[in-house]
Amino acid sequence: MGNWRIGFSILGILLLAVIVWPLVRWAFIDAYWVGVGPEACPDKTGACWPFIRERFDQLMYGVYPIPERWRVNTGLFIGFCLMVPILVPKIRAKALWVGLFVSVYPILAVILFSGGVFGLEKIQTSLWGGLFLSLVVGVFAFAFALPTGILLALGRESKIPAIRILAGTWVEIWRSVPTLVVLFVAVIMLPLFLPPQYEVDKLLRALVALSILMSCHMAEAIRGALRAIPAGQYEAATALGIGYWKTQTHIILPQALAMATPQITNVVIGLFKETSLLVVIGLFDFLGIVQAVSGDSRWHLSSARATGYLFVAFVYWCICFSMSRYSSYLERSGVAMHRR
């Protein structure tokens, strides 16, 4: 048995070397690192990192006006500061911070990013783009989907047949439709059913569609965790005379959300990766900006486009891998607390 393990390990290392080594050589060893403009990358034998350096601002912000980009940085920084108390297990009053992040932060972020009030210049959403747009869509969709998913999960477990049937039908309809179809319906078909004088922002339509879709997937993850809660928890709360909502918010949901953390993380990671589909409906997210800027004819002799795709893949991997590791940390912490 030991020889078989050694053999398979050696074979795995060889296969990994055969697959990974050419990519490493192209991306780093034979890559072009210095210089300015297309002349820095005369051919496609190696990655063209001067292209990423030259277009970095566009990859991050899209065509958001340069003098106003401080608003983007400020808004993202505030969001990060609000997420820290939520993500750090030792910080208490989670409900307060979650409430601020879900209810107050979206309003503040819209004011900063869009402007038009308090003396801020109005910035059309058509100018939003790059990694900034991907983060906005992911964060806003999550802020809407988490509370909505909880309500849908509770509705599917309700003892009232009408609520249970309505919630179940809503969830199953949306979960059965591919994400790309939902985006097309929201962006292309929805205006056909509205009066001509009503014009709904394209980004808002896509954001609502993704939020609804994400909330339905999240509802199923939470519902599975609700069913894993022992019946004795409900019976004990009923015996003590605790009402339905207090039972859910103080006893059941904290346990269910802890159990559902891996599944919720999978939903969030899946949604964040699916923000790349926004390019199909004409929104220049992170991937869309790479496709747009790498189409410059001045760079056609270089490997600018392939380098851009590699850079996008690496950034997506870093963000999704970080979320996955954090989910594993929360899961281990929850198991340890349960054992104590």
TrEMBL record:
GO terms for molecular function: transmembrane transporter activity. GO terms for cellular component: ATP-binding cassette (ABC) transporter complex. It is found in: Cell inner membrane; Cell membrane. The keyword Glycoprotein does not apply. InterPro entries: AA_ABC_transptr_permease_3TM, ArtM/GltK/GlnP/TcyL/YhdX-like, MetI-like, MetI-like_sf. Residues 131-320 form the ABC transmembrane type-1 domain. Keywords: Cell membrane, Membrane, Transmembrane, Transmembrane helix, Transport. It comes from the Bacteria. It is a multi-pass membrane protein. The chain crosses the membrane at residues 7-28, 70-88, 95-119, 131-155, 176-194, 206-226, 276-294, 306-324. Coiled coil: none annotated. Pfam families: BPD_transp_1. GO terms for biological process: amino acid transport. Belongs to the binding-protein-dependent transport system permease family. HisMQ subfamily. NCBIfam families: HEQRo_perm_3TM. This is Amino acid ABC transporter permease. It comes from Govanella unica.
